[in-house]
Amino acid sequence: MTKREMIAILGMVIADDEKKICKLIEYLVNWDEIGIRLLGTAYDGLTALKLINEKKPDILLTDIRMPGMDGLRLIEEAKMQNEILKCIIISGYKDFQYAQQGMRFGVRDYLLKPINQDDLTRTLKKLVKETQEQISIQSTRLHLEETIKNYTGTFKHLFLKTVLQKQLSEQEENILQEVEKMNAADIMKNSARCIAVKPNISYREFTEESYQLLTEKTLEIAEVEFSSHNWIWISEVTEEGIFFLLFSDALDRKELLESINHIKERVLSLQDLFPRLYFNAVVSEQADSCIQLIKRIKESRIAIGNRFLTGLNTVSEIKPPVANANLSSAMDARILKLLEDRPDAFDMEEIKKCVEAAKHIMKAEDITTCLQVKKNLLLLLNYYLNGFKQLDSSLDEHEKESWFSEMYEHCTSLEQTFRLLEDTLCETLMNVLDHLKNREIKPVIYAKHYIEENKGINIKLEELAKNTGFSYTYFSSLFKKETGKTLTEYIQMVRIDTAKKLLTEKERSVSEVAELAGYNDIKFFTRQFKKTLGVSPNEYRKLFTNR
């Protein structure tokens, strides 16, 4: 099978109102080498959509601003016809809102004007590769060739993945026993270093789509950088960051640091797409054995977690933290004491006071590792979530904890971690209270509707309460809390309102009105009517007949 036959031939449409841009793209791309066939170009959105419907392309490369229909609307319309269409936006507009909206429509990448040939080629190659992987499942031969080609690399990657999945508290010797089953001799043919990289978007601007794109961009930049040195490397992406293992017996430390700084500069240059973008990286010492490499990976995880202590946008060499057990124990004890002293009733102000007090406790200690900070933040979170659970049994506290842990990794400072905790707790409490209110209000609405529908006649209060799912005593207090009236008072009001309407009809006598309103005793009806409105039924009728 020739190289040409191995490449999937994909169709592409270009849409841009600048004809020069379309011609430039045609000129910059080596279409045959990449494996793409240009199906046509369009200079406005409506023509582009017609062309897409006719030619059925696999890839759409479009500008944002075009006459007739803008690029985002074009993508939305085109994806309705072909949901697997791969879309790339090309634009000179540095507006993150366009990027965010594009991600929701499934945009796979962005190119900024002026177009760079290498960026364009790399992006198109990536899309071809993705498509090729989707359609090559049937080709066992290609899969076998790829497996054999990357046989050693597979062991290295499995090693890294396994170590990263372990708890930081797990002993290195225990991890070693597990990874030795993978042919450790192949893993450590060369010395190695671990590099942990954290490209970051503040949790307040975080979306899964934008962070995935940022991670992909960072990996692309690192691949170009590492490949230029002919280094052997593998990578693994986790919530904590992107971890690389570089294998070389002659890996120059200074050269490596310069390369990581170059990656940092390239990533931070993406701020046109990702405002408030941050980058941190840590480089481990060299490892000459599997047990050493396991330790280096663990040190890298701790160090990238400690980025709050080193500042934003830094590349640093790892200095293993010296944990002070006495300080950690003292901090834990003070946080537990703080929670013991909190009142049982939860409200927004109490939560804010507690978080502020915890912040002062933790900042007063000589923090050497952020692991202790995260541990205590989770302690505070779970304390309140358990309390909220008592108020609302439908609350999924595990989902909240998982979300908090994920967003914690997108905080950019210690201060922001406390703000995240406060926001999470206050928002959760608000949702719990809203849910409780809705859960209680709905039965009250049902009861009011039932009473009004039946005009307050023949209402069995015990049965009505039972139908709402509450005991009669509890529901009575709940009803009064929401309406300001007891159930009996509300029924009386509805019956009097019914009588008022009937009294305006001249053909009905007062005794008939009393009976239709559910009163068997006309004297009792008259007393109740006058007590409520200050006039007798006859006097009320005269007020209307004299108008």
Automatic annotation (TrEMBL):
Subcellular location: Cytoplasm
Record's protein name: Stage 0 sporulation protein A homolog
Source organism, top-level taxon: Bacteria
Gene3D superfamilies tied to this protein: 3.40.50.2300, Homeodomain-like
The keyword Ribonucleoprotein is annotated on this UniProt entry: no
Keyword Transcription regulation: yes
4-aspartylphosphate sites (modified residues): 63
PROSITE patterns in UniProt: HTH_ARAC_FAMILY_1, HTH_ARAC_FAMILY_2, RESPONSE_REGULATORY
Residue ranges of every copy of the HTH araC/xylS-type domain listed in the record: 445-543
Function (record text): May play the central regulatory role in sporulation. It may be an element of the effector pathway responsible for the activation of sporulation genes in response to nutritional stress. Spo0A may act in concert with spo0H (a sigma factor) to control the expression of some genes that are critical to the sporulation process.
Organism: Lacrimispora defluvii
Cross-referenced SMART domains: HTH_ARAC, REC
Entry keyword set: Cytoplasm, DNA-binding, Phosphoprotein, Transcription, Transcription regulation, Two-component regulatory system
InterPro entries with a match to the protein in the record: CheY-like_superfamily, Homeodomain-like_sf, HptR, HTH_AraC, HTH_AraC-typ_CS, Sig_transdc_resp-reg_receiver, Tscrpt_reg_AraC-type_HTH
Coarse class of the protein's main subcellular location: cytoplasm
